[in-house]
Amino acid sequence: MKLKKRFVLSLRDNLRFIPDEDFIRMCFRAKLHYKLDLDHPRTFNEKLQWCKLHYHNPVLTTLVDKFEVRSFVRERIGDEYLVPLYGVYDSVEEIDIDELPEKFVLKCTHDSQSTIVCTDKSIFDFEVAKKRLRTALQRNWYWQGREWAYKDIAPRVVAEAYLDEPGRQTPTDYKFYCFDGKAALVQTDADRFTAHDMQYFTPCWEQRGDINHEVSNRKPTEKPENYDLMLRLAETLASDHPHVRVDLYNIAGNPFFGEMTFYTGGGFDPFYADEKQPDRLDCELGELFVLPKQNS
Description:
CATH topology: D-amino Acid Aminotransferase, Chain A, domain 1
Shape: globular
Structural class: alpha+beta
Order of helices and strands: HHHHHEEEHHEEEEHEEH
Mean pLDDT: 90
Distance between the termini: 34 Å
CATH class: Alpha Beta
Strand order of the largest sheet: 7-6-5-8-9
Helix content: 25-40%
Largest sheet: 5 strands, antiparallel
């Protein structure tokens, strides 16, 4: 993790004394440059902030936990779509690297910044990995963006199979933005830890060239042969929620579940479209997002 990122995480962790709503308003204005309206939320990002404060469905905590969510996926779409699991650990000291294969992935169950990829165990620095994981295990991700679903997750580490996509150092991530169980936008992320290539598509796989925030100008990502299956799996997993982003991988024609995200970008992603209407996509997704009943 870059030094700047570590500094930001540490800073936010030390701002716990600021009430949730005040913290959210402060970050929202700094990141998106418009005032947050929680009384009449209109945009996608405003509605994500509203959910942080007012929509506290207990099932969300299970679904964002990278270990606990596996039971939900198994029941909803089947065990064959889960990445093979090598182990789950309450502490770094429980991890026995000798029992792991040559390639594997370590990540914490309670956050989104602790993934460690090993592609060659003979040169893998396990001590550095353990140091990073120890730090992550001590951090409650809730305090980074006041994302309610992460507040009470038990911090653990999982070891999973390394998904090998030919020609890629890390597998392409397919992110389905779903509203009431229907996908409205698909984001692809390739080589995200090296030469990041981010692109956007409609559910019919028409490229959204009008979105330019962090988007590359490379050749459009090819539509997977089993895309219809991936779309169906994502919408099945999303069916009970006003909004969730379902992330999938596609390895040699086999879809694998990645994660479920209820606060994309922490609700601070600008989603720039064109210069004349920079918040157009933010508004477009906001119109699709029907807020649930308040239950905080």
